[in-house]
Write the structure tokens for this entry.
Amino acid sequence: MFKSDTLKITFTYVGALVGAGFATGQEIIQFFTMFESKGLLGVLFSTLCIVVFGIMYLYVTFNEEVDTYYDLLLIIAGQKVAKIFDIIISLFLFGGFTIMIAAGNGLLYENIGTNNYINYSLIALILYLSFSSGIKGILKLNTVLIPLLVIVIVIICLNSMIISEKAFTGGIMPKNYLVSGLTYASYNLIIGMVVLSSIKKEIYNKSTIIFGPLYAGLLLGAMLILITIATRGLESYSEIPILDLARPLGQKFYYLLVPSIGIAILTSAIASGHGLVVRLQQLTNLKYNTLVAIIIIIAIPMSSIGFTQLIKFVYPFFGFINFLIMFLTGVYFIKKNVISFNVR
């Protein structure tokens, strides 16, 4: 079960889903914490969706001629729907990539104080070097970075829950906590689908199709639960709630957290950018590294949008749109396995 390709897929899937919004706590506050105890049910439901649909995406990728998310869309949704969603997903990926650059610039400016030109030059260099190693390098990078991110978040959340008497109080309880959990899973599954559909050559064992998404879901779900419980102890929320959790714990936790947020930004940017570049390769004759340089150059001037507004409005919007792809994926999987099995 703990085979090398399984662990690579696990950490790559988690890396795709853990972005700046997750690492800062913004996503968790808006989608789960505000629902108090029922928010935990939303977490469990969201985690289940991420595991189940991750398995479905890998199953199709492994058993069909799939190299990009567009190939996957053609199989599960047909050509007409695939063309429409190809445009939507490409915009989502580029937008997410741009926002991660903006988040990286903000992180460097607030903690180092360097100007935008230096920040963007450093971000561009890091991204280009990360991309230039290709999918194998990206998988290895995630295998190292994601465990570090998990460890730091667990330490901060556990310490926060221990010292806070309010970790299980506060918040408001709207009635649509399950819809919120489904929406969270849905827009994250856009990037999940993009990443999982591009790593067919890295799957060496059929068991990885199940255990990769399963382990990823367990890791992600555990972190979601910890952050949800920990942030309920906060009397008010800043733009980076997880820094509010780390502040009472001393500078050592702060210095651990800032790099971990940077890791989340990097892995999310790589997930979005790689999926977009691979798709653009199908549409053009340009080389991988050339396309990487192009999207970085275009994204940097547009990165003044800011990631907070993306989380509040754009992510849920794409989440609602992706409900259709989730439905079509389920229908395809049932037809392919349940119905065909009964016919035989």
In short: The radius of gyration is 19 Å. The CA atoms of residues 162 and 230 lie 9 Å apart. DSSP finds 14 helices and no strands in the chain.
